[in-house]
Recover the amino acids of this structure.
């Protein structure tokens, strides 16, 4: 069993659930702009309605209370709380205050993500992460939010999945804003993003007593096919943190986490990018490596590896028909929640919190009016079993399922469902899936027996 202080929670993100994108002074975000471009969203949907949580947040919290979660991770829409004149929008801030107050009444601790991909469009027009002043804008935004929510929120994540921000938003173009960067621009943007993180940490520490704060990257761990082979595990560990100058280097773990946790980029960073390096000062690195409390990480899948006859690492192909979610990248690899946390703990020496883990399923309303999702239940159970195993050898503090609600799944639109609660978008109603009650039972048993 997990220890008695283990945190069970649910995660969501503002643009994916709130709706009401034109209400109460909210300005346009990069996703509001991106969804208007024909062909960018698979089903042509956008964030205008989605779950309607901007008005239905009390209903969300009632469901969280029924689950008996310890914590709710939600994000703040930068474009909802800061105007185009870079001033506080009180109506937007009031929404998050009321949300936090309702959570307090329900005895659920909020975990707030400051940036979950919805940059104000006016800031993107100024250069976005290529603008060297972006970290000052982010620090100001952080200052406004933390002061307004002081006494209600003490736990913060600065930035969610920097890998997706850069790889999908600026390499592949599948996510907003879809502006493709050169290598030189990419490294500058990554460096500026990390400075945003560092300045936000300083602001949070200054404004909030007894605060906790960190960043929440994502990763796809290398899982040894033979769990008894120590050499194989060692090579998987090395591969997990390896940085190469290839098409997918913006997805690398170490390019973001080494500066935050170890105080500098990996040594190979300076070698392989010598012709396109941004200006990196000691002051920058000291800023980026402000002390943080946890290793947050979003895990969904992984890849199996073996060794050939010469002890070279070989990636195993998934066989045809291999179990996977209803989205192309989500193969079911439960051991990812063992080896990923283990690798991160060994390198960075901080307590681990799984900030996202969940399953995309082809959910439907059955003839009995319920939503039966045994695949999601099986996924959560298998992954938690692996997390429980690794928690016996490293410090694991918590687990947040993604997501409380079906929602707008970025470029996939509304067709992909990750929620414990089914959203009937056509009839504007919600149905708790079987997985909701399964997760409720998991939490109850932990609180009874731990």
């Amino acid at each position: 069993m997990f220890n008695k202080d283990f945190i069970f929670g649910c995660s969501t993100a503002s643009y994916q659930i709130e709706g009401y994108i034109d209400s109460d002074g909210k300005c346009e975000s990069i996703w509001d702009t991106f969804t208007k471009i024909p062909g960018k969203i698979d089903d042509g949907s956008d964030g205008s309605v989605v779950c309607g949580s901007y008005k239905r947040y009390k209903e969300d919290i009632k469901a969280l209370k029924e689950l008996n979660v310890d914590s709710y991770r939600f994000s703040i829409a930068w474009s909802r709380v800061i105007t185009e004149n870079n001033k506080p929008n009180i109506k937007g801030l009031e929404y998050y205050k009321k949300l936090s107050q309702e959570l307090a009444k329900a005895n659920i601790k909020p975990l707030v993500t400051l940036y979950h991909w919805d940059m104000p469009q006016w800031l993107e027009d100024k250069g976005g992460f290529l603008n060297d002043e972006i970290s000052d804008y982010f620090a100001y935004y952080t200052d406004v939010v933390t002061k307004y929510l002081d006494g209600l929120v003490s736990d913060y994540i600065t930035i969610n999945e920097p890998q997706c921000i850069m790889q999908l938003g600026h390499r592949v173009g599948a996510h907003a804003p879809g502006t493709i960067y050169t290598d030189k621009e990419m490294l500058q943007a990554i460096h500026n993003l990390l400075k945003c993180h560092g300045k936000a940490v300083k602001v949070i520490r200054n404004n909030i007593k007894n605060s906790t704060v960190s960043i929440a990257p994502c990763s796809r761990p290398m899982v040894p096919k033979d769990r008894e082979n120590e050499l194989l595990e060692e090579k998987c560990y090395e591969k997990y943190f390896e940085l190469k100058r290839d098409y997918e280097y913006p997805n690398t773990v170490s390019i973001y986490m080494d500066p935050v946790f170890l105080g500098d980029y990996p040594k190979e960073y300076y070698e392989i990018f010598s012709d396109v390096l941004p200006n990196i000062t000691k002051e920058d690195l000291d800023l980026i490596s402000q002390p943080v409390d946890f290793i947050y990480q979003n895990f969904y899948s992984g890849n199996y590896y073996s060794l050939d006859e010469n002890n070279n690492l070989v990636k195993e192909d998934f066989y045809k028909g291999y179990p996977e979610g209803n989205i192309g990248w989500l193969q079911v690899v439960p051991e990812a929640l063992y080896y990923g946390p283990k690798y991160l703990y060994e390198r960075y020496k901080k307590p681990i919190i799984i900030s996202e883990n969940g399953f995309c399923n082809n959910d439907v309303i059955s003839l009995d009016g319920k939503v039966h999702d045994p695949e999601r239940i099986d996924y959560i159970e298998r992954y938690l079993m692996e997390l429980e195993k690794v928690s016996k050898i490293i410090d694991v503090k918590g687990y947040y399922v993604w997501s409380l609600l079906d929602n707008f799944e970025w470029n996939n639109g509304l067709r992909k469902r990750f929620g414990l609660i089914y959203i009937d978008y056509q009839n504007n109603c919600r149905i708790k899936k079987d997985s909701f009650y399964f997760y409720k039972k998991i939490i109850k048993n932990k609180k009874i027996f731990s």
User: Anything to note?
Assistant: DSSP finds 16 helices and 14 strands in the chain. The first strand starts at residue 7 and ends at 11.
